[in-house]
Amino acid sequence: MSYLSKWPESFVVAEAPQGQLMGYVLGKAEGEDHLWHGHVSAVTVSPQYRRLGLAKTLMDSFENLSIHTYNAYFVDLFVRASNHLAIQMYQNFGYSTYRRVLGYYSGYGEEPSEDALDMRKALPRDVEKASIVPLDRAVRPEELEW
């Protein structure tokens, strides 16, 4: 609910004609100066509506919001390093890996923690595309700016 109260414009829902939830994107704006950006916290598409281009439509919607409302330099998102299908999908959408975040996702019970990839897509404001130049080392969660 905190996202919805602070960034209501960044919560977009896709609904089927019969009223079923097809998918959604949830994000926010954060950062300072050249690190001002849109952050995708979640993008989800129900299994029966996958492979129809809905994730692309939702991501495009958030990217346009980040350009026209937030005037952001880039959009970023975190994805599990083991989620190869999602990584490929984001690459197809124009995202690239900026850095690896060690142990970002907590393990459950006996399971170990898992690394995240911080993926970014430069927006028109970042003319030089400086925001997507890959970092030359992995970082720990406590080193994240936001």
UniProtKB/TrEMBL annotation:
Q: Name one GO cellular component term.
A: NatB complex
Pfam families the UniProt entry points to = Acetyltransf_1
The Gene Ontology terms for molecular function here are: protein-N-terminal amino-acid acetyltransferase activity
Alphabetically list the UniProt keywords.
Answer: Acyltransferase, Transferase
InterPro entries, A to Z: Acyl_CoA_acyltransferase (IPR016181), GNAT_dom (IPR000182), NatB_acetyltransferase_subunit (IPR051646)
- Residues of the N-acetyltransferase domain: 1-124
Highest taxon listed in the record's lineage: Eukaryota
Checking Gene3D superfamilies in the record gives: 3.40.630.30
Q: Does the keyword Transferase apply?
A: yes
CDD domains per the record? NAT_SF
Keyword Transferase part of the UniProt annotation = yes
What's the protein called, per UniProt?
N-acetyltransferase domain-containing protein
Which organism was this protein described from? Fistulifera solaris
